[in-house]
Amino acid sequence: MDELNRKDVDSFKSMDKFPLVIILDQVRSGLNVGSVFRTADAFALQSVACVGYTPTPPHREVLKTALGSCDSVHWQHFVSVAEAIDFWKKQGYHIWALEQTQGSVPMESMEVQGPTAIVLGNEVTGVSDEALQLCDGCWEITQYGTKHSLNVAVSAGMAIYQWVTNFQNAR
Q: Which of 29, 50, 138, 147: CA 20 to 30 A from 89?
């Protein structure tokens, strides 16, 4: 790890983070949640917000795929998606859903306008209608195959990478 110049947990916690939050709304799989934690650590995100029955640390499946990132990444639990969105809006964050909807913007065309929270939904039902009503808009991942859905952890990774890239390019 020394050759990779990795930070220890305390250094990571005290460093500046990208102003990006991932809101996991009713995600069922602890393995998906843990994977999102790992990606949040890799990209030094502000926080992960787990909503409703979304598993939280120390759930064993979360810990299995998080590989220790639950110790470094700030996270919160909210009872409802409205509570999570309201909290981050009050912190000055723009709220976007990652969902295929009428009027959604292709993710590669996203404009980063400051601190952002991205809502990802349930593996089967997607982002809830309640969340969609509260978001500033929707981004979608352009897809070309016969299946028009991706695993939530894969989608999170793609969205995080695109947002961080666009954020850095806008600076």
A: 29
User: Cα–Cα distance between 102 and 46 in angstroms, integer?
Assistant: 29
Length of the chain, in residues: 171
Q: How many domains is the chain partitioned into structurally?
A: 1
Is position 125 within any domain?
Answer: yes
First CA to last CA across the chain, in angstroms? 30
Instruction: Please count the other Cβ atoms lying within 10 Å of the Cβ belonging to residue 54.
Output: 25
d(CA 72, CA 114): 23
pLDDT greater than 70 at residue 1: no
Q: How many CB atoms lie within 10 A of CB 5?
A: 6
Query: The domain that contains 88 carries what CATH number?
Result: 3.40.1280.10
Report H helices in 59-101: 60-66, 69-72, 81-90
Amino acid present at 11: S
pTM for the whole structure: 0.95
* 91 found inside a domain: yes
What tens digit of pLDDT does each residue of 75-134 get? Answer: 999 999 999 999 999 999 999 999 999 999 999 898 898 999 999 999 999 999 999 999
